[in-house]
Structures are given as structure tokens and as C-alpha cells.
Amino acid sequence: MPYTHHSHSGQFCGHATNTLEEMVQTAIAKGFQTYSMTEHIPRPIEDFYPGEEESHTPETLVKLFDDYLIEAIRLREKYSPQIKMLIGFESEWIRPSTLEIIRQVQGKHSYDFFMGSLHHTHTIPIDFDRATYERARDAAGGTDERLFENYFDAQYEMLQALTPPVVGHFDLIRLLSDHRDAQFAGMDGVWERIRRNLAFVVSYGGVLELNASGLRKGLAEPYPCLPICREFLGMGGWFAMSDDSHGIDQIGTNYSRLLDFIQKVGIKEIHYVDSDTSSTTSTTTDKSAPHAGFSSITVGDLSQLPFWTKVHG
């Protein structure tokens, strides 16, 4: 019964569908053992996506996030006999003031873990559509290579400031680029930054998510791509599984392909956030620290679970 560490619902995310309860019910029906809820943190109006101001204000995004956590707690209690649910969030890293927003979220709410992600470079979304990606590339100097370097530099700042337990879609930057499946070939400056970032994640005990949504969006490989995974594996890094679902039809999508990829990389052990295992950074009085730690399963045992008879693709 595999695990997912990354999900969004239409109830609390404008670019997703279905209610949070429908997402949980579908995860149960598909045989998941762990379902992690990781809605986005609030953003200021200067970081709204195109058209978002028609349905939200900064204040309503804050309330939406508060409402999400209330509903997540209710659902965790309701469905605890059927599935282990983890309450978390997905961070952003857009501009210096983003750190203050994250600290406010951490200080206000208790949570099991959080996903440290980057969706912007030069404060411009890099995975929203091709036009905004090109704006970010122009801001970086006009080439994918320069934008990639800037992305991984910003990611390094995020990693240093937050030390996220799970690092989300590590190489998301390639999604809309002209080099989406080229795996940063010939980009020495990019690879230097990738290795630096991976080494830092290993140094504090972070985990990279293997994110199947890259396959759903037409990439040849999930996030991160094969060379990055092998580099991280060689450093002794840990991996977790995610579908990054934005609707019930995406829960477990391409997980069979993700398992094939895990075996191709040579990964022998998959880690998962476990609320029965305390985080090494958590204390009973520190609300700002994640509460859950990690457990693991061998890939051999993972591949034998009955889950794989329920999930196709």
C-alpha cells in the first residue's frame, strides 16, 4: 500500500478539482496506506496567478488555508481506521517576504511535515504556462541555461532557509523549457548547482520526492530526472513517492511507471513520512517544527504489495 506526500483539492486550491474528502475517499479506494494533504500557503496579491484576483484577495487566501487545516483535522479523525493521513502544506519561495509568510504559517499551525517547493524564478511563475515561462527566461538573460542556474540558486536559498523535510519536484524548471527531456546535458554551471543543492539536502536529512506528475504532464521521466536521482542516490540520499494529484482522477496516476523508474534508478529503499515516528527537529513545545519523522520500506517489499493490482498506468 504505497504512499503519496503531495496533493491538492479543488476545495482549497484554485487549479485543482474535487473536495478534500473526495480525494481522501479515492485514496482509500485505491489502496493507499498514507495520504498527505499539502495545500499551498497563502500568497500576497503581487504573487497572485493570472486571473486569481477575480476570486480571491490576500485575506481570503489566508482564511482558505485556515479552513483547510480545520477540514484536514476532521477528515484525519473520521478516516483514521481506514488510512493514515498526514497534515502538511506546500511552501513557496518567491521573494524575501515569502519567508515571513512561511514563518507565520509555521508559528500558527501544528503540522506533520511540509513540502519545500519552488514555482517561481525572478518572482515569475515557471510552470503556469509557456508565456510566463518565457518572461522568466527573459528576466534571466534569455536562455534556458541561465534560467536553470537562477532556479537552482533560488532553490538553494529556500533549502538553506527552511530545510524542508521533503523537497518538492526538484527539477520542475524543465517542464516548459526547450530542454525538458535533455536532462541539463552540457550545462556545467547548472550541474554544479544541482550537486550543491543535493549535497545540502543530504546534509540535513531531507528527502526528495519522486513526483509522478511529470509523467502526467508529458515528460519522459518524473521529477527529478534519472541523472539527478542517481547523483542523489550516490550521495546516500533518501526518496519518497508522490503523485502531486489535483483531482481524484490523478491519485496514483502513473504509479506503475514510477515504480519502474525507481527500479531503473537502482533505488533499494523508499522512505515515507510516518506520524508514529517523531521528527528529529520536533519538540513538544515547538509548533513551528514538523512533528512526524520517516520510516522506510524496501523496494522489493513495496513491489509485492496488493496496491499494484488496483492502480493502472
Automatic annotation (TrEMBL):
Q: Is Mitochondrion given among the entry's keywords? A: no
Question: Pathway, according to UniProt?
Answer: Amino-acid biosynthesis; L-histidine biosynthesis; L-histidine from 5-phospho-alpha-D-ribose 1-diphosphate: step 8/9
Annotated PHP domain ranges read: 5-212
Q: Which UniProt keywords apply?
A: Amino-acid biosynthesis, Histidine biosynthesis, Hydrolase
Q: Which Pfam families match?
A: PHP (PF02811)
Q: What is one cellular component GO term in this UniProt entry?
A: cytoplasm
Q: Which Enzyme Commission numbers does its entry carry?
A: 3.1.3.15
The UniProt catalytic activity note for this protein reads: L-histidinol phosphate + H2O = L-histidinol + phosphate
Note the InterPro entries from the entry: Histidinol_P_phosphatase_HisJ (IPR010140), PHP_dom (IPR004013), Pol/histidinol_Pase-like (IPR016195)
Q: Which GO terms describe its biological process?
A: L-histidine biosynthetic process
The molecular function terms in GO held by this entry are: histidinol-phosphatase activity
The UniProt family comment states: Belongs to the PHP hydrolase family. HisK subfamily.
Can you say what this protein is called? Histidinol-phosphatase
